[in-house]
Amino acid sequence: METLRVGVVVPRPPFNTMPDGGGLDIDLMTELVKKLGAAVEFVEYDSGAEVEGVFERLNAGAYDCVAAGTTVTPEREATARFLPPYLICGQALAVDTGRLPRVRSTADLQGLTIGVGRGGTGEPIAERLVAQGKAEAVRVYDHGGLQAALADLGTGGCDAVMALGPVLTELVKPIPGVDVVTRGLSTEHIAIGVGLDSQALLGRLTVAQAELEDDGTLQAIRRKWLGNPYTDQSLAVH
Predict the structure, then answer these.
(1) How far does CA 159 lie from the centroid of its chain?
(2) How far apart are CA 160 and CA 138, in angstroms?
(3) What residue ranges in the chain does DSSP mark as E strands?
(4) What is the pairing mode between strands 113-117 and 81-82?
(5) pLDDT tens, residue by residue, 76-106
(6) I need a surface site. Which of 12, 70, 154, 198 has the fewest CB within 10 A?
(7) Whole-number Å distance between alpha carbons of 155 and 160
(8) What angle do CA 192, 235, 76 make, to 5 degrees?
(9) What is the DSSP letter of 71?
(10) 0.85 surpassed by pTM
């Protein structure tokens, strides 16, 4: 039986909760390979390094595809081919609402420091806010260090954390006083990537994903992990 090797960035809840074994990407790829009549092997990529490295390893042959809750960007399209998005979401903002109760949106960030993950799609958005004079500075954390950024909210190490909505929503859950205050700060397409030379696999996975969408399986997976079968919660601006 064919085995599909899938690169997953860890840790990245709710896309995966490895090594626990669950997550949106884990469920999606498990169902996709069933459609292909194949088996699946998940290969972990430690996100302590920059997330772009997962695509470098894809083209080096470490994986057959990548399902890592990653946004399709022009830079990534130069290194991988992508299926249609299985999720549309955006950046969100979290603060310690006890320390900074006035911060409810990006309009309230003047004089404050935004924490972001290195190489993430929130980094250029935060840098643009600084360039426009709407925030004071950007503090960049290693990609796997968003928990450290969130811990810094209470001490003033940074004043707000910007990250992809579904990820930020999960990470703030166990932290008292830290809340996601605004969502939908961007519109990002989250998709599975294959190598540049993997046109046949791209076609097979695209058909299988369309079937999962059509028969309701993909909606059920999104509902399970995000609470909404069509988009993630970051588009429901609060």
Answers:
(1) 21
(2) 10
(3) 3-10, 39-46, 65-66, 81-82, 87-89, 91-96, 113-117, 137-141, 160-164, 178-182, 188-190, 193-194
(4) unpaired
(5) 999 999 999 999 999 999 999 999 999 999 9
(6) 154
(7) 11
(8) 30
(9) B
(10) yes
